[in-house]
Amino acid sequence: MLRPQLAPAETQILTLATAVAAADTINEAGGLSAGIKWPNDLVIDGKKVCGILVEMSSEADRVNYVVIGTGINYSQKAEDFPPEIRDRAISMKAASEGQGRPEGTTGFDRLSVVRLFLKKLDDIVKLVLSNDNKKIIEMWRARSVTLGKKVCFKLRDSGYTGTAIDITGDGRLIVDCDDGIRRELLSGEVSVRGVYGYF
């Protein structure tokens, strides 16, 4: 639980920061190549390996506390996932074995992954608390699998497609839509999917 000195509208940076910490953990611990799907899913080869949920208690002008939930798929085999998501979910161990490593020789264990994640999360939360959002945004961009891709989303019951071109300083996704309008999307308002699959 965190008690950051942030206004409620400023807390999206915590989601982006956590995604960076989780991506770096998965990649460093497992020798993998996880990327961030805006704003808070991590994917390997188009399959989800981690999800992040940030919940907060707030007043109109201040945050009372924030709870960051992070779920990393660690040891599941393909058949462990429900059939309806089997083609869109993966675990660290499955991804590692998919790179040609023999089963059971991944080179990482659950405790080392947890320790590394907590260390990286602590480091990046310090950037949040020092208002170094620019650095966090740069780190997020470098790990993004969304930017430059065709995406589709629903906004107020209308569907749109376009190209994700950037994120703003507060973490909104900027999409050049096919109808000629540039839109900035707030993560709580929309669900973004790739036109050519889940990425």
Helix fraction by DSSP (H/I, runs of at least 4): 25-40%
Strand composition percent: 25-35%
CATH-defined topology of the largest domain: BirA Bifunctional Protein, domain 2
| Number of domain modules | 2
What is the strand and helix layout of this fold?
Blueprint: H1 12-30, E1 35-37, E2 41-44, E3 47-58, E4 63-72, H2 92-98, H3 110-129, H4 133-143, E5 150-155, E6 158-167, E7 173-177, E8 182-185, E9 192-194
Antiparallel strand pairs: 1-2, 2-3, 3-4, 5-6, 5-9, 6-7, 7-8
Description:
With 199 residues, the protein is an alpha+beta fold. It folds into 2 domains: 8-143, 2-Layer Sandwich (BirA Bifunctional Protein, domain 2), CATH 3.30.930.10; 150-194, SH3 type barrels (Roll), CATH 2.30.30. It is 29% helix and 29% strand. The chain contains 4 helices and 9 strands; from the N terminus they run αββββαααβββββ. Helix 1 (12-30) packs antiparallel against helix 3 (110-129) and helix 1 (12-30) crosses helix 4. The model has no long low-confidence stretch (mean pLDDT 89).
Give a nutshell description of this structure.
The chain is α+β, with helices and mostly antiparallel strands. It is 29% helix and 29% strand.
